[in-house]
Specification:
296 residues, mainly alpha, 84% helix
Length: 296
Amino acid sequence: MEPNIDEWCSDNRLESESVIILSVWLSFTSLAAVAGNALEMWLFYKHESLRTTSNRFIISLATADFLVGLVITPVWIAERYVIQPPDTSAWTKILNMLWVYTTAATTFNLCCVSVDRFIAICFPLRYKFIITTRACHYSIISAWVASILLPLSLIFVSEEKMGMMLSVATFLLPTIIVTFCYAWIFKAARRQIRRIRENSIENNTMFNAKQNYKALKTVGFVLGVFIASYMPCLVVSIVHQVKGGDPCLDDRYFVSVWPWIEAVAFTSSAINPWIYCFRNTDFREVLNRRFTWFPS
C-alpha cells in the first residue's frame, strides 16, 4: 500500500524523542553560554588591564554569545520544539529574523576578532596605527548595525528571494574571512617556530616555541569549531535553495532537518569563551587570581 502523501506532508511536528534531546541539549548550551560569557564580560569590566583593543573585539563577541544563551535559545526551545507553529505563522517569521540577527552578530564579530588577530600577528609594527581605539569601536558598531539590518530586510523582501543572499552574508563570507585570516596566522606561527629552531641561541627559545605551538593549536580550535558550527548551515541552505520548490519537501526540511542544524550553530556560543577568552593568558591569569581553583 502506497503511503498517503497528504498525511505525510501534514505531519509537520517534530518527533517527541527529538524534542526531548534538542531541548535538553540547548538547555545545557544556554546555561553554559550565559555563565561563560557573563564571566568573561565581568572580568573585562572589573580589571582595567584587560581593556585592550583586541579584548574589546572579544567582549563584543561574548556579548553576542551571551544574548544567544540568555534570550534566543530559551525562546527557540519554547517556540520551535514545544509550540511548533506552522512555517507560515507570524511567530515563525519573527523567529527566523531572530535567527538571522543572532547568527549575523556572532559571525560578524568573529570576523572582527579574526581580522584583529591577523593584523596583530602579520603586521605587528603597524598594528597600533591600523587598529586604533576609534577604528575598533567603529568596527564593532558596524558589525552590530549590519546584523540588525539583515533580518529587517526580510520585512520588505520575500524569504525565498533573501535566502541565498542571507546564506552568503551570514555564512559564506564570514567563513572565507575567518579561514583566510587564520590560514595566514598559521603560516606566520609556523614560520616563527622554524626561525627559532634554526637560530636558537637565547635562553627563552623553548618558551617562545611553546607559545607559538600553542598559537597553532588555538588556530586549529578556532577553525574547527567555526566550520563545524556554521558550515552545515551554509551547505544545507544552499542545497535547499537550489533543490527547493516542492512545498511538501520544504515543510519536512523545516521540521526535520533545520532544528538539528540550529542546535549545532547555537552550541558555538557556549564554546567560544573557552577558545577566545580562557585560552588567553591575560584572562586566565586574572581568573586564577579571582578563582584559585581555576586550572592554570
